[in-house]
Amino acid sequence: MVQLNESELNKPGGVEGSGQVGMQGMEMLDGGITEALKESVERSNPQHADNCNDVTQGIHGHFHHFAPGHHSWLNKFVPQLQSIAAKYHVGNYVAIRGTNERIFESMPIYARLGMHILFYGREQVKLLEGNKRIEELLMEQSKREGQIYDSPASRNHIPSFIHTYNIDTSELLYPPESPAYKNFNDFFYRKLKPEARPVQNLDNEFCSAADCRLVVYPAVHAAQTFWIKGDEFTVPALLGLDKSDPLCQALEGGSLASFRLAPSDYHRFHSLADATVVGEPRDIPGQYYTVNPQAINEKDLDVLSVNKRSVLLLNHDATSKKIAFVAVGALLVGSIQWTVSAGSKVRRGDELGFFAYGGSTIVAILEPGMVEWDSNLVANSSPPKPGQLGIETLMKVGWSIGKVPNDKK
User: Fold this and answer.
1) Which of 19, 133, 217, 363 holds its CA 20 to 30 A away from the CA of 351?
2) What is the spatial distance between Cα 96 and Cα 396, in angstroms, rounded to a whole number?
3) What is the CA radius of gyration of the chain?
4) Which helix (H) or strand (E) holds 260?
5) Band of the pLDDT at 375, cuts 50, 70, 90?
6) How much is the pTM?
7) Cα dist. 270→83, 185, 206, 279 in Å?
8) Residues recognised as catalytic
9) pLDDT band for position 12 (cuts 50, 70, 90)
10) Strand boundaries in 329-399, DSSP class E
11) How far is residue 223 from each of residues 160, 227, 377, measured CA to CA in Å?
12) Would you place residue 71 in the very low, low, confident or very high pLDDT band (cuts 50, 70, 90)?
C-alpha cells in the first residue's frame, strides 16, 4: 500500500533531483499508482458495476473537488490522496486573452496518475508483471481506453461528459442524441457547425489551429528557455529526421507554436495558414506520456519528441516557406487521423484532422522570418523575469495568432 507525503504529491516530479527510483518508489509503482491508473481506465467502462454512466467515476474525476466517498476506490491504491488533494490544487493556470485574468484548470485523475508513473518510473523501473516497463503500461492502457470508447455502450457517457465539462451543445453540427454518435469517441471528435469557428482578423495571416492552450515563441531556443525544458528536445528529434535533412536545416532557428488540447476541447485541428499540403502525413511511433505542462517543463524529460506523433508538411502560400505541423499523441490518446492528403489546398481554419480520445498537443515549426506572433501571446509565453515559466493562453480555432512581417510581404 502506497503512502505519499504532501510534498511528494504536490510536486510534478516527485522525488526532487533523483533520476533513479529507490525501493519506496518501486513499491509505489508496483503497489499503487499503476494499479490506480488501470482501475480508473476500467471504471470508464459503461459495463463496470460502479460506472452508472458517470464519467467522473473513472478517468474524468478531478482531484481538487472530491465529494465525500466519490472516489473512495482510490484509497485502496493511494491512501491519503483525497485529503491531500483537498488541500493542494492539482492543475495549471491559463491566461484569458485580452485581460489580466488567469483561471485554474484542474487535472483529471488519469493525467495526475500518469504524471506520477512518468516521474517515479520511466525507464528504470520494471513492474511486477514480468518485464513490462512503464512505457508498455501506458501504451496498454491507452489502447484499452480506445477500445472502451469505441464500444457502442460508451455512447451513454455523452450526457455526463457534456455536464462535467460544460460543453456548449449549440455549436454541435449534430445534437448529442443524434445517431451520428455511434460511440463516445464519435462525440469526442465531434464536428461543429461551419459558423462556430470563424477566422478572425483576416488581415493577419495566421490563426489558431485548435481550441487549446497556446504558447508561441519567435525562435525554438526561446521555447526551450521558457517552456520546453527537455534536455534532448530539438527540431530534428521532433520531426524524426537527421539534422542534415534539408527540412531540418530550413527550419533551423524558426518560430514555434504549441497548441495543447485538454480532454474537454473540440478535438479537430485546423490549418493555421493558407497553404498546400506537401506529401502524405508521416507517422512516427513512440510513447504515450502525458503532455501536461508539468511534463513539458521538466528538464530531464522530452515528451514531445518521444511520444507517438504524425508530421504534416505545409507550404505557405504567402511566403512559399515551409511549416511542419506535428500532431503529438499522449496518455490515453487512441489515434491521430488526417482528413487531408498530398496536394490538398487549405485555407486558414480549414480542417486538417482529429485526435481520438485523450488530451494531446500540436507543435508547429515555421521557417525563420515567416511570422510575427501577436504581442499579447508573446507576453504570456515569455515572462520578463528570469527563471519564470511562460503561461498558456486559452484559444479557439480561427483566432488570430500572428502575421507575416511587413518586410517579408
Assistant:
1) 217
2) 11
3) 21
4) strand 255-261
5) very high
6) 0.83
7) 41, 19, 11, 17
8) 211, 270, 360
9) very low
10) 336-338, 345-346, 351-355, 360-366, 372-373, 392-395
11) 37, 5, 13
12) low
